[in-house]
Amino acid sequence: MPRLKESTRLERRRRIAAAAMQCFAANGISGTSMADIIRASGLSSGAIYSHFDSKAELLRHVMATMLEDRFTAVAAEPDGSATTVTPEALLARLLAGPSANPAQTSVLVQVWGEMSRDADLVLVAEDNVAHLRVLLVRTLTPWATQHADADQVEALTARTADWLIAVTFGFATVLALQSTGEPEGFHGNLLQAARAIGDQEQRS
Hints:
The structure is a single chain. Helix 1 (6-27) crosses helix 4, helix 1 crosses helix 7 (102-114) and helix 9 (153-177) packs antiparallel against helix 10. With 204 residues, this protein is mostly helical. The radius of gyration is 19 Å and the shape is elongated. Helix content is 75%, strand content 0%. The longest helix has 29 residues, at 119-147. The chain is built from ten helices and no strands.
């Protein structure tokens, strides 16, 4: 069999992952078989298994890549004329993912339930959270530098990053549990709470 070009290989993996995400969102992770994913992808079983040995391996790949857009958003430069990224602005970036992609959010919450049966999936999730925290701390540091003494900057960025992670994952869980979409005012209330954190640090 001829060797695939790297661009073709990556596109095929993306296509398989997208098909898996579609199936996981529609049928649940436990209710999805490799046959379902093969059918949804339009590829042959041989093509699928040349990239992923099992559904578990494919699920780990989906988990490892589903937050890439959020990582990119977190690391982006300040919006408009702003000189720093505030906790409120950062939370808005984080919440945009679950709001815009409820199917992905549903799969993310399901993945948490799979962790008790898949130690490798736990490692992937831990790596994702650790990477997100590093990005949050790095992005918040200029803001914290303006609002805290030099010896308090690290503590301020750490606790704000942890709060943002907890709120973001909590938001995703609430959305996944709502059959009628996002509760009215929920998104705005969270942003208001983040704004209050910024205002409190500015006054202190």
